[in-house]
Design brief:
about 240 residues, alpha+beta, Phosphorylase Kinase, domain 1, Aminoglycoside 3'-phosphotransferase, Chain: A, domain 2, 2 domains, four-stranded antiparallel β-sheet, 10 strands, globular, transferase activity, transferase
Length: about 240
């Protein structure tokens, strides 16, 4: 159905302007019943979207600033790959102090989601020590040497507690800050993994000690190489992962 599904949110629902939304989705600002919102159209399964909806509603109830799914007129929270969410105002982090506020918000996310179930079809970084595929990851498509390097980086995470990770919080475009709150947007890559993967931030704003930062940075570079393979960005990230 594509964007025709937007009519489920009202006959007056209309797209306004395309927004940055990564490679997996078509993201637009929309008007729904006179209010500004965000529409995201992608190819995720219903089970995948239901997981994300439940996560965002849980985090909103617990006081975290996140986009909240807006029901269609018939009560559905997504339809044919389309989800409509509240628009989060604000700007990106700019200073070291801003990034420290982001780190505090991420730690609260991790605290609130200990024991949360894995996103359907996804694998954590340590799962990929034994599995070859998970959502957009296909290790068989990567060079064997690259896979060995990635797995060596992920092996250093074995035994760590897991929670929901945002998946890409070091991208300033995924943060909307005001003077009184930090909002995390674009949850399309969120899944269950080791929290430190979220904490490789500018200025080491999460204050990871040197050894922990190195482990997290290597594992994060390996993850991004695998999930984006094989574009130029993925190759750059893989080059950051040390040889075994």
């Amino acid at each position: 159905m594509g964007w025709e599904a937007l009519e489920l949110w009202g006959k007056d629902a209309v797209r306004i302007e395309r927004l940055a939304g990564g490679v997996a989705n078509d993201v637009w600002s929309v008007h729904i019943h006179g209010q500004l919102a965000v529409g995201r159209l992608g190819t995720r399964s219903n089970a995948d979207l239901a997981w994300e909806v439940e996560l965002l509603r849980h985090l909103d109830r617990e006081g975290l600033s996140v986009p909240v799914p807006i029901p269609a007129d018939d009560g559905r929270l997504f339809a044919d790959g389309l989800m409509v969410m509240t628009y989060m105002h604000g700007g990106p982090p700019e200073t070291e102090g801003d990034w420290r506020r982001v780190a505090e918000t991420l730690r609260e996310l991790h605290r609130l989601t200990q024991g949360w179930p894995q996103r359907p079809g996804w694998r954590s970084s340590t799962d990929l020590l034994h599995a070859e595929t998970g959502t957009r990851i296909d290790l068989a498509a990567m060079p064997p040497d690259g896979v060995a390097r990635c797995r060596a980086a992920w092996a250093r995470l074995i035994g760590r507690e897991a929670s929901v990770v945002h998946g890409n919080p070091n991208n300033p475009a995924n943060i909307r800050m005001t003077t009184d709150r930090v909002a995390l947007i674009d949850w399309d890559e969120s899944h269950i993994d080791v929290p430190d993967l979220d904490l490789v931030l500018p200025h080491n704003a999460a204050d990871l000690e040197a050894g922990a930062y190195d482990i997290a940075a290597q594992a994060s570079a390996a993850w991004e190489a695998a999930v984006c393979w094989d574009d130029e960005y993925a190759k750059q990230r893989l080059a950051e992962v040390r040889a075994v």
